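Reminder to self: tokens first, then the designed residues, so the page reads top to bottom the way the pipeline ran.
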């Protein structure tokens, strides 16, 4: 019988906030339930983006589901009135999303794809049909009510009028394509206004600049937005906070043109704007700061200086419902509540504007996607290790669940719990998890194969919360190791920056140390190791295959193989590459040495390559080079190309493609491990 190796216990690093979070017991899954299947993807109803009415008595939220017959996603709006059972507000069959209460609480605005493009609709809360109030050819993006409820401001990607009938693309901007959007054709995001009763819209901005992330001032005269209004905006990282007077259309720039800012939101008393970002757009910091500035202009001030964690939700679990706002002011304008990523968890943390210490408001071991205030309480959309997304209420006394969309499914299945572990890798302390198949323990006589799963980013974090894709490896008989190596979010800024310009070199020791630590826990077969990952995780999969022969099988998903040819063929090269690498013509040796393709002759493991035809983040040519190199070397390789899909295939691709992608991945490991 195997003996469990004793290892020194390493504690989780603790941030500097005051931990006043309520203690809520985690739900446990049935141990005798059936194993999960890939097709469970079609069963879930995933709540998200809760919105509390102005008087606090009602909550409207979205529920995302999949219609298997049409192979389409549907999103319906649901309503909770006081403590009554949730009920549907919209009938389904469409994508009804982004609900927002009118200031008087009598109506809900939302966007829907009931036509060819998303348009604005307004629904009376006391009964009646939703009324469409926009008919833009370009559709509607973000929108917000005016404080008096008479107007709705929105953004729309408006293209200049075509000249002639030519179908030839003439490109002058570096920002001419984007993953998930395709070719942009010089369309730019503009700010528009429409009466809440409908009619012709008024366009407030113009030009070849993107005006995004709008917020109405409480006095109703100004709209804050994010933009770079310089002629070279498309090759720059700077993004400023601006305001525009809705009557005169006069613009004011509140920030100094040197930073990269986003998510502006006004305090209820109109005195301050809170926002996220960096004073130096080229500082390469991973952990952005939370700042405030007087709404009339002035000096900016940082609220989270002592936190040294990541503002915003960078967690990876799923499938998940729709996200909500990252920042929300308290009603007294004395603090800003924000989602914070910390060591795999996401929290809602309160940041007082008087500089006092921040306060954690939510329990641990949650992936919180959205939150809202309901009086002194919080309404959150979150996932736990043994439960997909649901809504719950957080009070000073604890947590109460508000929705039960997936209760029947949870009662039916077996969901193994991730075992969190911390391990030492060089000078760093790193976080990881192990999920074991049913009946596997450290003392099992029949050790099971192990797959290492590497997250994308690299500036993201795995979470212990429910993740169907990770659980599927375990349901099919393999153990799964996943980790937040150097470069991940949820840790210090220095930890996140450790891989800049050093992908592969700085992080490979963490991946291998995570595997070794998990194997030392017992019950795992060190001779049957697999590796997989997507995007940066695909890069890392390719890199590991070229630097160690310990893996017997691999699946590389939407990967990078050649850093030099990646430059200029993806959608974010000019603003996304690490400045430490420079450019391929300035540093050809550095780019080649940082490319997995330089080491492809060392690959021995059978490799499945999965890639999307419409992937503009990691273009198809990256997979093609990796495939042809392995073929020329006579290695075992298979190349699977998914049509009409973007970089986000695994999260929001066609449901049938998501099922096939996961099926092929699992079958590859079953064949070769």
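Designed residues (673 positions):
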């Amino acid at each position: 019988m195997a003996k469990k190796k004793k290892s020194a216990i390493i504690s989780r690093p603790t941030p500097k906030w005051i931990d006043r979070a309520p203690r809520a017991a985690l739900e446990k899954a049935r141990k005798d339930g059936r194993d999960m299947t890939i097709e469970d993807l079609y069963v879930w109803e995933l709540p998200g983006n809760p919105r509390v009415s102005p008087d606090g008595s009602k909550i409207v939220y979205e529920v995302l589901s999949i219609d298997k017959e049409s192979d389409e996603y549907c999103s319906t709006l649901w309503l909770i009135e006081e403590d009554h059972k949730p009920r549907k507000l919209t009938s389904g069959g469409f994508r009804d999303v982004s609900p927002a209460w009118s200031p008087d609480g009598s109506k809900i605005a939302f966007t829907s794809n009931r036509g060819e493009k998303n348009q604005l609709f307004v629904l009376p809360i006391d009964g009646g049909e939703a009324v469409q109030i926009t008919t833009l050819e370009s559709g509607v993006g973000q929108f917000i009510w005016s404080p008096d409820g008479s107007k709705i401001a929105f953004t729309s990607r408006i293209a200049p009028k075509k000249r002639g009938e030519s179908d030839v693309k003439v490109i002058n901007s570096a920002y001419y394509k984007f993953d998930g959007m395709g070719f942009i054709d010089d369309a730019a995001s503009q700010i528009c206004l429409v009466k809440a009763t409908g009619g012709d819209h008024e366009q407030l901005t113009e030009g070849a600049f993107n005006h995004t992330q709008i917020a109405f001032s409480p006095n109703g005269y100004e709209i804050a937005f994010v933009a770079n209004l310089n002629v070279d905006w498309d090759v720059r990282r700077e993004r400023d906070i601006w305001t525009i007077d809705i009557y005169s259309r006069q613009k004011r720039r509140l920030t100094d043109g040197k930073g990269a800012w986003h998510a502006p939101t006004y305090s209820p008393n109109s005195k301050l704007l809170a926002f996220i970002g960096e004073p130096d757009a080229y500082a390469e910091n991973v952990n952005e700061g939370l700042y405030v500035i007087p709404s009339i202009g002035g000096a900016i001030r940082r609220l989270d200086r002592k936190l040294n964690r990541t503002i915003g939700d960078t967690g990876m679990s799923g499938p998940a419902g729709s996200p909500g706002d990252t920042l929300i002011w308290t009603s007294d304008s004395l603090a800003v509540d924000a989602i914070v990523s910390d060591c795999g968890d996401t929290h809602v943390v309160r940041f007082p504007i008087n500089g006092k210490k921040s306060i954690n408001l939510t329990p641990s071991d949650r992936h919180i996607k959205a939150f809202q205030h309901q009086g002194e309480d919080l309404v959150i959309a979150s996932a736990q290790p043994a439960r997909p997304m649901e809504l719950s209420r957080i009070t000073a006394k604890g947590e109460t669940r508000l929705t039960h969309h997936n209760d029947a499914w949870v009662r039916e299945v077996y969901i193994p719990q991730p075992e969190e572990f911390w391990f030492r890798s060089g000078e760093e302390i790193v976080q990881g998890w192990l999920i074991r198949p049913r009946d596997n323990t450290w003392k099992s006589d029949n050790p099971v194969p192990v797959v290492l799963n590497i997250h994308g980013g690299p500036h993201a974090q795995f979470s212990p919360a429910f993740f169907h894709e990770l659980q599927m490896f375990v349901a099919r008989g393999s153990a799964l190791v996943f980790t937040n190596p150097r470069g991940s979010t949820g840790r210090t800024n220095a930890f996140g920056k450790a891989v800049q310009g050093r992908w592969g070199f700085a992080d490979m020791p963490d991946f291998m140390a995570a595997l070794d630590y998990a194997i030392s826990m017992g019950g795992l077969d060190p001779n049957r190791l697999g590796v997989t990952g997507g995007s940066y995780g695909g890069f890392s999969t390719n890199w590991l295959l070229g630097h160690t022969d310990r893996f017997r099988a691999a699946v590389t998903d939407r990967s990078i193989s050649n850093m030099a040819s990646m430059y200029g063929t993806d959608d974010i090269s000019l603003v996304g590459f690490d400045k430490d690498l420079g450019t391929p013509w300035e540093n050809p040796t550095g780019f080649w040495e940082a490319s997995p393709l330089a080491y492809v002759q060392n690959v021995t493991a059978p490799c499945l390559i999965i890639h999307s035809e419409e992937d503009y983040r990691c273009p198809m040519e990256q997979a093609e080079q990796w495939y042809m190199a392995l073929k020329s070397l006579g290695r075992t390789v298979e190349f699977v190309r998914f049509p009409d899909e973007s970089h986000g295939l695994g999260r929001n691709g066609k449901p049938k493609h998501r099922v096939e992608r996961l099926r092929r991945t699992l079958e590859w490991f079953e064949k070769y491990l």
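Residues 655-672 form the longest helix (18 residues).
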